Amino acid sequence: MSLANAPIPLTTVLIANRGEIACRVIRTARRLGLKSVAVYSDADALAYHVREADEAIRIGPAAARESYLNVEAVIAAARRTGASAIHPGYGFLSENAAFVAACDEAGIAFVGPPASAIAAMGDKSAAKARMEAAGVPLVPGYHGDDQDDAVLKAEADRIGYPVLLKASAGGGGKGMRVVEHGEAFQAALEGCRRESQAAFNDQRMLIEKYLTQPRHVEVQVFCDSHGRGVYLFERDCSVQRRHQKVLEEAPAPGMNEELRREMGEAAVRAAREIGYVGAGTVEFLLNVDGSFYFMEMNTRLQVEHPVTEMITGEDLVEWQLRVAAGLPLPRNQDELAIGGHAFEARLYAEDPEQDFLPATGHLERFGLDLAGAGLSAASVRLDSGVEAGDEVSMHYDPMLAKLIVHGHDRDQALATLNRALAALDVSGVTTNRAFLQRLASHPAFKKAELTTRFIEHHGEELFATAVLDDEAYASAALVALDLLRRESRAGTPWERRDGWRLNAPDRVRIALTDSTHADDESDSPAIVTVLAERQGASPWRLHLNGRTLEGHLQPVEGDGVAITLDGHRRRWLARRDRAEHGEVLVLGDAEREIRLFWRRLDAVDHGHHEVDATLTAPMHGTVVALLIEPGQPVEKGTPLMVMEAMKMEHTLNAPADGAVEAFHFAAGDTVGQGDVLLTFTAAE
């Protein structure tokens, strides 16, 4: 049935969101014959989702509270464009009961659950009580109304450490801390309250026992307005950082049919208990003994919904729109089946080597070379909210895209994920792409030894600096030589920089440094010099570290190159990234990424870089709090200032014993990356 002829006619859908999810909804709306309307802030005037939509309406300044969280502006945009429905995406207003009520009052269909269901699950403490009454198992904890500091501390002591502090109105990892011991409780409580107030305008907390080796397994549920409800199986979302998911997969490894059915039926019970309609996700902690506990219900579409789509063959956004139009669910429980295995990797603009600090900048390149990696569009999907040439803003969540892959089984899907990550070409903005590769290729992940502390437990290997061998430096040198050759085509022979000499063998020196230390003058990073020589079109002879390797490079499709060293031929994806002080040569395959800073001898910057990162803003953001008084003596490591960017807090600590002479910004001020935040004097 056409949605225009449904019980609740839908013809135009406004997407009250931005980025990847807005583009995702636009694609399904277009396929169903619906007109799409985007909304945008001043920071997003040229954004990808604005370009993709049939219409777009400005709704306010860059700050989310004045645009994407502005209920009146969103409703006005829907009225102006004649939208018959509003899809909230995830985040922003997606779980705001007052927004749903405003849609109802305006006569606009909300693509999601009723306000009463959102309110029931939005208050995490009240939700726990209702779930307990419905027979859904709960983790031991405190969900009470008394929010006095002493009461919360006493409850944490009673439950036993470690405990998890969570914002009662929260979600998405905001306002959440693990507290390992009682001495750390008060500082964690204050930090959680600040984040919760900023994200949800609510400071109430709940406390749960923190299970040390649980898995995060969630169940996708769907209910319609005709009393029917189904579960579309489960997803494992255990691999997280800062309580935000990084890698997700479906189905969850190690599940048997009995456990799957028990969790699925418990999830549907939870949804029915609150009169749910639409797409929802019930999140559980799965213990090593097979017991599971209700955590929370997300009353919206999840970021990781594509892995469920991959294994079921269903379009969940289409299901949402049909249910919002008053139509029944398109499938019964016995008509749903699992087909194969799927993974999703979230690509963030952030620096894993700098405690996952958010990153901003200009996306010079952004694309996925499927042909070069030998992959097909049937097994790989890239849900993106950006294109090459876009700006990554400080104002919103740092997720750029989601890479989703499918295989006949987990091993095949994981192999596809690794190849697809290697084929993902992103430059201009620091991302977690290489970190995702290390995660996906980690032996413990391959064996599905999963817990919510996976990254923490394996941090030594995941964050270890790779030891590069002579072949890595020689391969990068061949890439540099090829770049010099191409750069020299336009000039005269006397302007060439590719080693050409009249009536003599070509000779050129390539100086390379491990890019992770390229700008760290204090550590004096070792420079490996490769002396390359050749006669005419013969292979290069590469001299380094007392060895000589014979090699040549051959371009292949896309950004691929075939590099042969002493008869050993390997395919790589190769590119050049622009860095602040030069260029980085990047080579990647399905197993690793090599990044080497190219210290070009024709353009070496000999200036000394003397910026102390602890005293300057490591990112664009907002000052949240000043934690000490100027002149107050402090020890090295003492927290001095809290910043917030892309919805996450970052604390700047004292670089040495000493004192802050003056803060240069106040709480609430916006700062740019590199701004000097304070004047600090070290103790003698």
Describe this structure in words.
The chain has 684 residues and is α+β, with helices and mostly antiparallel strands. The chain has five domains: 3-111, Rossmann fold (3-Layer(aba) Sandwich); 140-209, ATP-grasp fold, A domain (Dna Ligase, domain 1); 215-462, 2-Layer Sandwich (D-amino Acid Aminotransferase, Chain A, domain 1), CATH 3.30.470.20; 470-598, 2-Layer Sandwich (Glycoprotein, Type 4 Pilin), CATH 3.30.700; 621-682, RNA polymerase II/Efflux pump adaptor protein, barrel-sandwich hybrid domain (OB fold (Dihydrolipoamide Acetyltransferase, E2P)). It is built from 18 helices and 38 strands. The strands form nine sheets. An eight-stranded antiparallel β-sheet has the order 14-13-10-11-12-15-22-20, with helices on both faces. It has an eight-stranded antiparallel β-barrel with strand order 24-25-26-27-28-29-30-31. Strand 1 (12-15), helix 1 and strand 2 (35-41) form a beta-alpha-beta unit. The protein is globular, with a radius of gyration of 27 Å.
